[in-house]
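QUALITY CONTROL LOG
STEP: pairwise intake check
CHECKER ROLE: data steward
CRITERIA: each record must contain a sequence immediately followed by its structure tokens, with no blank fields

ENTRY 1 OF 2
RESULT FIELD BELOW
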Amino acid sequence: MRIAVGGISHETSTFAHVPTTLHDFEHGLGLYRGGDIVTRFRGTNNCTGGFITGADRHGYEILPLLWTFAYPGGLIRRADYDALKSELLNRLLAALPVDGVLLDLHGAMVVEGIDDGDGDVIEAVRGVVGANIPIVATFDLHGNHTQRRVDAANAVVGFDTYPHIDMAERGVEAADLIMRTIRGEVKPVMAFRPLPILWSAACQVTAHPPIDEAFRLVHDIERRPGILSVTLSTGFPWADVPNMGASVIVVADRDANLARTAADEIGDWIWQRRERWHRKPLTVAEALDVGERTGRYPIMLADMADNTGGGAAGDSTEVLRTFVERDLPDALLLYLVDPEVARQAHQAGVGKGMHVQLGGKSHPAQGKPVPLDVEIVAISDGQFTYDGPMYAGLTGNLGTSAWLRHRGVNVVIVSARMQPLDQAFARSLGIDCVKMRYIAVKSAAHFRSGFEKIAGSIHNINAQAIHTHDFARRPYRKRRKPMFPLESA
């Protein structure tokens, strides 16, 4: 069996002001071609790593095409996307004949002039391989799904966890499913149920209530005879597209009515409990006060309105300003994006002091820069290896970086936008996160993968930033209406 493998992956914020370019794909998690894909991802926790494990299990031949992932950001420039898609398709053409195609996608990719980037990729691949070759795509939990991509693929497999610690598992699931399809053991059919819900990030952590109950239902239904896979997506509200929102996709074996009945059963269950998926976040001050009353340290603040993992700029200053004004001891902020200050720190050198204007440079909505006298504790070129579990085995590059200290407030300054998924980079600078009393992370939930085990208490906050979680303030133009909780339905 010959299975083509590839993908173009991006979580696109249409509210971000800086477009995503080819350079961002090359310098995100990277741009890999041909055999380099297998070398890079074998044994790693991502879907392509799972595809490779599937090849070892089933004995199929992998035909690696092109794989690329840019860190979340603004709209993808059309010319750059077209270049990537053309290369993916040309490599597929050169690999023909194939028995199947496995695609490692995200589900919330938006391109200039193309609201459904993922659907466009799947349709283009379908155009090359024809109607009879199975295509199975894997998707992030935060996909904004469409009937278009469901029609173009034979099956889709979505993540079951947030933080996403099951990516390789879902890749293996997709590999198993495509092999069963090729062998004629199953014939996948799908049903799609959109849900007009803006799902709060604080209600999406799959190891905790309330969403753990939804996934118990998903897994119960997956065990039913004839059901091959169920994808529950919470959606990505920073992509202002007509299909934005939560959804359910059920894959059944040959029985379209079974798929439809199961999708509606889950969809109805979720909709009837829609109030449970929304939670008002705390302010910075409220979260700190609650944490102090609780008395368990470190107190962790999830600065989700400036979550670089969702395409935010990463340089908002309200949390930093509050830490400084409260003169907190043993406080840590991960990571503040400020290439200008990072370069200044490298020029000055470790052990030196300097006066900086920290953060607040990308957009007025991010707050004003904070003037500080700081000590340069450590510097880095930004390269490190994740220790997981989310990206275990993958490398990261945060660019020119530094650990700065102002009295008891410690700030890690980076040049590339990426949320802290684990403690690996902080540790590379010499920071022991366990010894901190207060830790703020520019992340919504993925930080839990590497930090929840050390946290005393965790609080999602809605600090001043361009990705405010007060969705009524977002200037949506394309989203469907009504959408809970903004409108009743």
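ENTRY 2 OF 2
RESULT FIELD BELOW
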Amino acid sequence: MDIFQALILGLVQGPTEFIPISSSAHLIIVPWLFGWPDPGLAFNVALHLGTLAALLIFFAGDWVRLFRAGIASIAERKIGDDVDRRLAWLIVIGCIPGAIVGALAESKIEELFHRPNAGHNAGAMIAMGVIIALLGAVLFVAERIAKHLRGMESLSLKDAVLIGISQALAIFPGVSRSGATITAGLFLNLTRETAARYSFLLSAPIIAGAGAKSIFGLMRGGFPSSEWIFFGVGFLAALLSGYWGVKYLLRFLQRNSTDVFVYYRWLLAALVIVLALARR
């Protein structure tokens, strides 16, 4: 890896983590297209920490308010009609399916699609292309069924569980964490902006947990000093482009549908499948 590659991958990771087009798929596809070396665990940690930092900064006021509300609900043993108290616990509940699936299956999925220092399996790349296209089709249907009526204050336990289960599916490259959760939110008749906002709040604990797990693995294996520069470049690129991605998407969904992302997914899927077949 060189500085240019680190910068490009960071700029790719940031917005694709939040725009419903799958960051994990793009981090596999971009090096595969250009014949770049696998960036390695340390660099992937940097990218995820960058997007986590973008979330923490963008929603700083929300996090402080939700944390205080959650603590107050524990101290008083009551949630009541407080929107923030309910939302704080709905975020915790919504994270449980993804945390369980990630702990049980993440390493196996990672080995299938993204083994370090090994070429990508053509069958796995075709499967990922199919997943990208299918999720696009589901989002296309959701956009047309959704009534776009419900705001954040209407979120229920059922919504948190269903959206949490959909987030767990993002363990497969091509699904997209935001894509799955926003799609589920639309099926539940949330407004597009509400679905996206809850999706982003829900993703932060999962990204933090995955990052902590990766850092622990990194500490056991040792951190190469030569990678610090790439770590820093990737982190900053992912942070800045991720912050822009969150801001752009929330503003975009106030007035527009998700169709542009559906069409992008279908074009990307076609490209991946055609190239995978050609390179077999």
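INTAKE CHECK: passed for both entries
DESCRIPTIVE NOTE, ENTRY 2: The longest helix spans residues 83-113.
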